[in-house]
Amino acid sequence: MISGLYTAASGLVAQTEQQDVISNNLANVNTTGYKKDRALYITFPEVFLHRVQDEKAVIPGAGLRDLMVPIGTVGKGVQLRVDGIKPSITEEGSFNNTDNKLDFAIKGNGMFVINTPNGIRYTRDGSFSLDSDGRLVTKNGHAVLGQSGEIIVQGKDVHVDEGGRIFIDNAEMDVFRVALFDSATPLRKEGDNLFYTLDGQALAEDDLVEETQVLQGFVESSNVNPVREMVEMITAFRAYEASQKAISAQDQTLDKAVNDVGRVSI
Protein backbone atom coordinates (compact mmCIF):
# COMPACT_ATOMS: atom_id res chain seq x y z
CA MET A 1 0.00 0.00 0.00
CA ILE A 2 2.75 2.44 0.98
CA SER A 3 4.58 1.41 -2.19
CA GLY A 4 1.50 2.42 -4.18
CA LEU A 5 1.63 5.89 -2.68
CA TYR A 6 5.21 6.34 -3.86
CA THR A 7 4.32 5.02 -7.32
CA ALA A 8 1.45 7.50 -7.68
CA ALA A 9 3.59 10.31 -6.28
CA SER A 10 6.25 9.68 -8.95
CA GLY A 11 3.47 10.16 -11.51
CA LEU A 12 2.64 13.56 -9.97
CA VAL A 13 6.27 14.65 -10.22
CA ALA A 14 6.58 13.39 -13.81
CA GLN A 15 3.47 15.22 -14.99
CA THR A 16 4.56 18.42 -13.20
CA GLU A 17 7.83 18.29 -15.14
CA GLN A 18 5.89 17.62 -18.35
CA GLN A 19 3.73 20.69 -17.71
CA ASP A 20 6.87 22.80 -17.20
CA VAL A 21 8.31 21.63 -20.53
CA ILE A 22 5.05 22.30 -22.40
CA SER A 23 4.67 25.73 -20.78
CA ASN A 24 8.19 26.67 -21.89
CA ASN A 25 7.43 25.53 -25.44
CA LEU A 26 4.28 27.64 -25.56
CA ALA A 27 6.13 30.66 -24.13
CA ASN A 28 8.62 30.42 -27.03
CA VAL A 29 6.14 29.85 -29.84
CA ASN A 30 7.21 33.18 -31.40
CA THR A 31 10.94 32.86 -30.66
CA THR A 32 13.02 32.79 -33.85
CA GLY A 33 14.72 29.45 -34.42
CA TYR A 34 13.40 27.92 -31.19
CA LYS A 35 13.32 24.11 -31.04
CA LYS A 36 10.64 22.62 -28.84
CA ASP A 37 11.62 20.35 -25.96
CA ARG A 38 10.39 16.86 -25.20
CA ALA A 39 10.45 15.23 -21.76
CA LEU A 40 11.84 11.68 -21.75
CA TYR A 41 11.14 9.31 -18.88
CA ILE A 42 12.24 5.92 -17.66
CA THR A 43 10.22 3.50 -15.54
CA PHE A 44 11.39 2.12 -12.24
CA PRO A 45 11.84 -1.68 -12.19
CA GLU A 46 8.63 -3.68 -12.30
CA VAL A 47 7.65 -6.02 -9.46
CA PHE A 48 6.27 -9.47 -10.21
CA LEU A 49 3.09 -10.18 -8.25
CA HIS A 50 1.71 -13.48 -6.99
CA ARG A 51 -1.73 -14.41 -5.74
CA VAL A 52 -1.60 -15.54 -2.10
CA GLN A 53 -3.94 -17.42 0.20
CA ASP A 54 -5.55 -19.22 -2.73
CA GLU A 55 -4.74 -22.90 -2.25
CA LYS A 56 -2.63 -24.76 0.22
CA ALA A 57 0.07 -27.30 -0.49
CA VAL A 58 1.40 -29.86 1.98
CA ILE A 59 5.12 -29.44 2.52
CA PRO A 60 6.72 -32.48 4.17
CA GLY A 61 7.97 -31.47 7.57
CA ALA A 62 6.74 -27.89 7.15
CA GLY A 63 2.95 -28.13 7.21
CA LEU A 64 0.91 -26.06 4.72
CA ARG A 65 2.12 -23.35 2.34
CA ASP A 66 0.23 -20.97 0.09
CA LEU A 67 0.44 -21.72 -3.61
CA MET A 68 1.52 -18.33 -4.99
CA VAL A 69 0.01 -18.17 -8.44
CA PRO A 70 1.71 -15.55 -10.67
CA ILE A 71 -0.71 -12.81 -11.74
CA GLY A 72 1.56 -10.34 -13.57
CA THR A 73 3.68 -7.31 -12.92
CA VAL A 74 3.10 -3.83 -11.57
CA GLY A 75 5.13 -0.71 -12.32
CA LYS A 76 6.91 1.20 -9.59
CA GLY A 77 6.59 4.65 -11.12
CA VAL A 78 8.61 6.85 -13.48
CA GLN A 79 11.28 9.50 -13.35
CA LEU A 80 12.88 11.98 -15.73
CA ARG A 81 15.91 10.56 -17.52
CA VAL A 82 19.35 12.07 -16.96
CA ASP A 83 19.11 13.46 -20.49
CA GLY A 84 15.37 13.86 -19.99
CA ILE A 85 14.65 17.19 -21.69
CA LYS A 86 15.64 16.83 -25.33
CA PRO A 87 15.14 19.45 -28.06
CA SER A 88 13.45 18.38 -31.29
CA ILE A 89 16.25 19.78 -33.41
CA THR A 90 15.45 17.96 -36.65
CA GLU A 91 11.95 19.45 -37.01
CA GLU A 92 12.12 22.66 -39.05
CA GLY A 93 9.92 25.67 -38.47
CA SER A 94 8.55 27.77 -41.31
CA PHE A 95 10.74 30.34 -43.09
CA ASN A 96 9.52 33.92 -42.91
CA ASN A 97 10.68 36.64 -45.32
CA THR A 98 11.93 39.77 -43.52
CA ASP A 99 13.76 41.53 -46.39
CA ASN A 100 16.50 42.33 -43.86
CA LYS A 101 19.90 41.60 -45.41
CA LEU A 102 21.32 40.63 -42.01
CA ASP A 103 18.65 38.01 -41.33
CA PHE A 104 19.54 34.45 -42.27
CA ALA A 105 17.98 31.00 -42.06
CA ILE A 106 19.42 27.56 -42.74
CA LYS A 107 17.40 25.07 -44.74
CA GLY A 108 18.36 21.55 -43.72
CA ASN A 109 20.01 20.11 -40.64
CA GLY A 110 22.60 22.78 -39.99
CA MET A 111 23.37 25.49 -37.44
CA PHE A 112 25.36 28.69 -37.45
CA VAL A 113 28.59 28.50 -35.46
CA ILE A 114 28.88 31.15 -32.75
CA ASN A 115 31.87 32.25 -30.68
CA THR A 116 30.95 32.89 -27.03
CA PRO A 117 32.88 33.39 -23.78
CA ASN A 118 31.97 29.77 -22.93
CA GLY A 119 33.37 28.44 -26.21
CA ILE A 120 31.85 27.41 -29.52
CA ARG A 121 28.06 27.30 -29.57
CA TYR A 122 25.44 26.66 -32.26
CA THR A 123 22.15 28.34 -33.17
CA ARG A 124 19.30 28.29 -35.68
CA ASP A 125 18.45 31.91 -34.87
CA GLY A 126 19.84 33.92 -37.76
CA SER A 127 18.59 37.34 -36.63
CA PHE A 128 22.01 38.96 -36.80
CA SER A 129 23.22 42.55 -36.69
CA LEU A 130 26.48 44.51 -36.83
CA ASP A 131 28.26 45.77 -33.73
CA SER A 132 30.34 48.96 -33.52
CA ASP A 133 33.36 47.12 -34.98
CA GLY A 134 31.44 45.82 -37.99
CA ARG A 135 31.29 42.24 -36.67
CA LEU A 136 28.27 40.12 -37.51
CA VAL A 137 26.79 39.22 -34.10
CA THR A 138 23.78 37.56 -32.49
CA LYS A 139 21.19 39.40 -30.43
CA ASN A 140 23.40 38.92 -27.38
CA GLY A 141 26.53 40.26 -29.05
CA HIS A 142 28.26 36.91 -29.75
CA ALA A 143 30.31 36.80 -32.96
CA VAL A 144 29.10 34.71 -35.89
CA LEU A 145 31.92 32.64 -37.38
CA GLY A 146 32.94 32.15 -40.98
CA GLN A 147 35.66 29.97 -42.45
CA SER A 148 38.19 32.75 -41.79
CA GLY A 149 37.07 33.53 -38.24
CA GLU A 150 34.73 36.28 -37.08
CA ILE A 151 32.76 37.78 -39.94
CA ILE A 152 33.64 41.46 -40.43
CA VAL A 153 31.45 43.58 -42.72
CA GLN A 154 33.28 46.56 -44.13
CA GLY A 155 31.11 47.87 -46.91
CA LYS A 156 27.56 48.81 -47.74
CA ASP A 157 26.09 45.96 -49.75
CA VAL A 158 25.95 42.49 -48.17
CA HIS A 159 24.93 39.52 -50.27
CA VAL A 160 24.98 35.84 -49.28
CA ASP A 161 24.21 33.05 -51.74
CA GLU A 162 22.67 29.68 -50.92
CA GLY A 163 26.16 28.22 -50.61
CA GLY A 164 26.84 30.50 -47.65
CA ARG A 165 29.39 32.62 -49.48
CA ILE A 166 29.44 36.20 -48.20
CA PHE A 167 29.93 39.03 -50.72
CA ILE A 168 30.64 42.57 -49.56
CA ASP A 169 30.21 45.14 -52.35
CA ASN A 170 30.33 42.26 -54.88
CA ALA A 171 33.65 40.93 -53.53
CA GLU A 172 33.67 37.51 -51.83
CA MET A 173 34.92 37.96 -48.26
CA ASP A 174 34.09 34.78 -46.36
CA VAL A 175 31.84 31.71 -46.09
CA PHE A 176 29.51 30.89 -43.21
CA ARG A 177 30.58 28.02 -41.00
CA VAL A 178 27.61 25.66 -40.72
CA ALA A 179 27.62 22.71 -38.32
CA LEU A 180 25.69 19.54 -39.19
CA PHE A 181 23.53 17.57 -36.79
CA ASP A 182 20.93 14.79 -36.78
CA SER A 183 18.47 13.25 -34.33
CA ALA A 184 21.27 11.33 -32.62
CA THR A 185 23.46 14.41 -32.04
CA PRO A 186 23.80 15.04 -28.26
CA LEU A 187 22.84 18.73 -28.38
CA ARG A 188 21.60 20.56 -25.30
CA LYS A 189 20.26 24.06 -24.78
CA GLU A 190 22.34 26.66 -22.97
CA GLY A 191 19.95 29.62 -23.16
CA ASP A 192 19.80 32.64 -25.49
CA ASN A 193 18.85 30.24 -28.31
CA LEU A 194 22.28 28.60 -28.18
CA PHE A 195 23.12 24.90 -28.23
CA TYR A 196 26.21 22.99 -27.12
CA THR A 197 27.29 19.38 -27.49
CA LEU A 198 26.76 17.23 -24.42
CA ASP A 199 30.01 15.33 -24.94
CA GLY A 200 32.04 18.48 -25.64
CA GLN A 201 32.97 17.36 -29.17
CA ALA A 202 32.74 19.77 -32.10
CA LEU A 203 30.09 19.06 -34.71
CA ALA A 204 31.07 18.13 -38.24
CA GLU A 205 30.83 21.06 -40.63
CA ASP A 206 29.38 21.33 -44.12
CA ASP A 207 30.60 23.03 -47.28
CA LEU A 208 26.95 23.91 -48.10
CA VAL A 209 27.07 22.25 -51.49
CA GLU A 210 24.45 19.56 -50.84
CA GLU A 211 23.45 19.23 -47.19
CA THR A 212 22.19 22.72 -46.36
CA GLN A 213 21.30 26.09 -47.83
CA VAL A 214 21.58 29.58 -46.38
CA LEU A 215 18.62 31.85 -47.05
CA GLN A 216 19.29 35.60 -46.83
CA GLY A 217 16.43 37.85 -45.76
CA PHE A 218 14.61 34.99 -44.00
CA VAL A 219 14.33 33.78 -40.41
CA GLU A 220 13.08 30.42 -39.19
CA SER A 221 10.10 30.42 -36.85
CA SER A 222 9.89 28.05 -33.90
CA ASN A 223 8.81 24.47 -34.57
CA VAL A 224 6.20 24.61 -31.78
CA ASN A 225 2.66 23.67 -32.79
CA PRO A 226 0.44 25.48 -30.23
CA VAL A 227 -2.57 23.20 -30.82
CA ARG A 228 -0.52 20.06 -30.31
CA GLU A 229 1.10 21.49 -27.19
CA MET A 230 -2.29 22.37 -25.72
CA VAL A 231 -3.52 18.82 -26.34
CA GLU A 232 -0.42 17.43 -24.62
CA MET A 233 -0.95 19.84 -21.72
CA ILE A 234 -4.53 18.58 -21.23
CA THR A 235 -3.28 14.98 -21.41
CA ALA A 236 -0.63 15.68 -18.78
CA PHE A 237 -3.21 17.36 -16.55
CA ARG A 238 -5.56 14.35 -16.79
CA ALA A 239 -2.69 12.00 -15.93
CA TYR A 240 -1.86 14.23 -12.96
CA GLU A 241 -5.49 14.02 -11.79
CA ALA A 242 -5.41 10.22 -12.10
CA SER A 243 -2.34 10.03 -9.86
CA GLN A 244 -4.03 12.34 -7.36
CA LYS A 245 -7.09 10.06 -7.22
CA ALA A 246 -4.87 7.01 -6.77
CA ILE A 247 -3.18 8.63 -3.78
CA SER A 248 -6.53 9.65 -2.30
CA ALA A 249 -7.95 6.12 -2.68
CA GLN A 250 -4.92 4.53 -1.05
CA ASP A 251 -4.97 7.08 1.75
CA GLN A 252 -8.61 6.24 2.51
CA THR A 253 -7.80 2.52 2.51
CA LEU A 254 -4.93 3.07 4.93
CA ASP A 255 -7.20 5.14 7.13
CA LYS A 256 -9.69 2.28 7.39
CA ALA A 257 -6.92 -0.25 7.98
CA VAL A 258 -5.53 1.79 10.87
CA ASN A 259 -8.77 2.97 12.47
CA ASP A 260 -11.39 0.34 11.65
CA VAL A 261 -9.85 -3.08 10.97
CA GLY A 262 -8.38 -3.44 14.46
CA ARG A 263 -11.35 -1.97 16.29
CA VAL A 264 -13.04 -4.28 18.84
CA SER A 265 -16.81 -4.01 19.08
CA ILE A 266 -18.31 -4.58 22.51
Brief sketch in words of this structure:
The protein has 266 residues and is an alpha+beta fold. 23% of the residues lie in helices and 37% in strands.
Describe it.
The structure is a single chain. The strands form nine sheets. Strands 9, 10, 13, 14, 18 and 21 form a six-stranded antiparallel β-sheet that branches. The protein has a three-stranded antiparallel β-sheet with strand order 15-16-17, with no helix packed on it. Strands 1-6 form a two-stranded antiparallel sheet. It folds into two domains: 2-86 and 225-261, no CATH class; 95-220, no CATH class. It is built from two helices and 23 strands. Helix content is 23%, strand content 37%. It is elongated. The relative contact order is 0.20.
What's the structural blueprint in terms of helices and strands?
Blueprint (H helix, E strand, L loop, with lengths): L1 H26 L9 E7 L3 E5 L4 E4 L3 E4 L2 E6 L3 E10 L7 E3 L6 E4 L2 E7 L2 E5 L5 E2 L5 E2 L5 E4 L2 E2 L7 E3 L4 E4 L2 E5 L2 E3 L6 E5 L2 E4 L7 E2 L6 E4 L1 E3 L5 H36 L5
Antiparallel strand pairs: 1-6, 2-5, 3-4, 7-23, 8-22, 9-10, 9-13, 9-18, 11-12, 13-14, 15-16, 16-17, 18-21, 19-20
What is the share of helical residues?
A: 10-25%
Whole-number count of domains: 2
Number of strands: 23
How can the largest sheet be summarized?
A: 6 strands, antiparallel
* Percentage of residues in DSSP E strands: 35-45%
Based on CA atoms alone, the radius of gyration comes out at 28 Å
Q: Could you state the order of secondary-structure elements as H and E? A: HEEEEEEEEEEEEEEEEEEEEEEEH
- Strand-pairing-aware structural class: alpha+beta
Number of helices: 2
Mean pLDDT: 83
User: Which descriptor suits the 3D outline?
Assistant: elongated
Query: Unreliable segments (pLDDT under 50, ≥5 consecutive)?
Result: none
Distance between the termini: 29 Å
